[in-house]
């Protein structure tokens, strides 16, 4: 394992892009795919993916080592490639047919395509099973009508992992189908939404008589809920391996900022404040605990092939810890955090704004607590 770590470290040291990742528009897609393509060409994409689809077929622990070295090298965020690499790819490996794996997995690793997720809907909140986007079978196609929302990078995506209701008479957790949607299909309209950071990362997606081949159904018709749970387990578990490592690096940077940042009267630094030092120490310890918890999740995936409901503990802890890190950063950086201009403290203010997403995405913190209570602790259902 140490030999693998040193090889990864050397490659990253020589190849991490020196130019910063763009923040908006098609340039983001071009940057992310070019970086993914470089990793693929040099054999560093899909560490734990099957070799027949372009991966290296190594263990999840080696995948974790790669993520650790990736964060250590300050390599770019996976960005628009996230859904393909962390959601669609693992879901297809676990639940897709051989034909679907052969068609969809290699382009993800090669950096040819961007995927987005079509799960959330207006009026559904975090109650994913209440989705109302309909799909009716017509010959060898599904015909889709409805709307999705909060779809990250839909305006830049080629493919979508889409949940549709195929049996409106079934109980709400049944009669749902997981299907691959070509985002260039006639009848799809994408409307970007400007977020609190001023970026158009999320979108509304409207479907009017969109025809999707039945061959694109992953799993079985009406059995999409179980496939979606596989997707969300990956999203709440292994997909966050690199983010947890990155959060640890952020805490270390914040400690350095606290030592260097002078207070308003330049009489002392934030590091001279006993309370802030204690909070920084607690953050460092909690990140270490979260990393240990994630190691346990990775070990479970290695044994069973799926993260299971325990992955919600990782997701919930990560979201709450992210908010604490960037909340304390606002206190340490002080008034400079209010300046959204191009200066070093900007990352802390943008990170603070983005931290609110961390307790909503992949299911709100209340949804995660419900899953932990019912499916991990075995408590009575709340409804």
Defining traits:
383 residues, alpha+beta, four-stranded mixed beta sheet, four-stranded antiparallel beta sheet, 11 helices
Whole-number radius of gyration? 21 Å
Please work out how many helical segments DSSP would assign. 11
Helix content: 40-55%
How much beta, percentage-wise?
Answer: 5-15%
Number of strands: 8
Task: Tell me about this structure.
The longest helix has 31 residues, at 274-304. The protein starts with a helix and ends in a 7-residue tail after the last helix. The protein has helices at residues 2-15, 25-41, 60-72, 82-95, 98-110, 224-236, 241-260, 274-304, 311-333, 346-355, 365-376; strands at residues 115-118, 134-138, 141-148, 159-165, 176-182, 188-193, 202-213, 217-218. The chain is globular. It has 383 residues and is of the alpha+beta class. The strands form 2 sheets. It has a 4-stranded mixed β-sheet with strand order 1-4-5-8. Helices cover 47% and strands 13% of the residues. The chain is built from 11 helices and 8 strands.
């Amino acid at each position: 394992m140490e030999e693998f770590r040193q090889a990864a470290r050397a490659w990253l040291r020589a190849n991490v892009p020196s130019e910063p990742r763009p923040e908006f528009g098609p340039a983001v897609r071009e940057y992310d795919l070019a970086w993914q393509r470089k990793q693929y060409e040099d054999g560093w994409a899909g560490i734990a993916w099957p070799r027949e689809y372009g991966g290296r077929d190594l263990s999840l622990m080696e995948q974790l080592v790669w993520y650790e070295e990736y964060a250590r090298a300050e390599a770019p965020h996976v960005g628009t490639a996230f859904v393909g690499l962390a959601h669609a790819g693992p879901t297809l490996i676990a639940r897709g047919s051989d034909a679907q794996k052969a068609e969809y997995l290699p382009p993800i690793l090669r950096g040819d395509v961007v995927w987005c997720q079509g799960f959330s809907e207006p009026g559904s909140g975090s109650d994913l099973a209440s989705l109302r986007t309909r799909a009716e079978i017509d010959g060898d196609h599904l015909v889709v009508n409805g709307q999705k929302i909060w779809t990250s990078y839909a305006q830049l995506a080629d493919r979508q992992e889409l949940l549709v209701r195929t049996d409106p008479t079934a109980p709400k957790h049944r009669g749902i189908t997981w299907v691959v949607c070509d985002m260039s299909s006639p009848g799809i309209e994408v409307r970007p939404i400007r977020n609190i950071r001023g970026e158009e990362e999320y979108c509304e997606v409207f479907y009017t008589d969109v025809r999707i081949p039945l061959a694109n159904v992953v799993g079985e018709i009406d059995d999409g809920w179980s496939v979606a749970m596989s997707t969300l387990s990956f999203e709440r578990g292994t997909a966050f391996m690199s983010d947890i490592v990155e959060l640890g690096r952020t805490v270390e940077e914040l400690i350095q900022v606290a030592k260097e940042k002078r207070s308003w009267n330049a009489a002392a630094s934030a590091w001279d404040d006993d309370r802030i030092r204690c909070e920084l120490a607690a953050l460092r310890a909690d990140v270490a605990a979260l990393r240990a918890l994630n190691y346990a999740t990775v070990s479970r995936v290695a044994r069973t092939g799926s993260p299971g409901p325990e992955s919600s503990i990782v997701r919930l802890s990560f979201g709450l810890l992210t908010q604490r890190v960037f909340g304390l950063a606002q206190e340490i950086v002080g008034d400079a955090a209010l300046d959204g201009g191009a200066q070093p403290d900007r990352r802390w203010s943008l990170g603070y704004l983005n931290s609110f997403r961390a307790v909503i995405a992949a299911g709100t913190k209340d949804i995660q607590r419900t899953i932990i209570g019912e499916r991990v602790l075995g408590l009575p259902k709340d409804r």
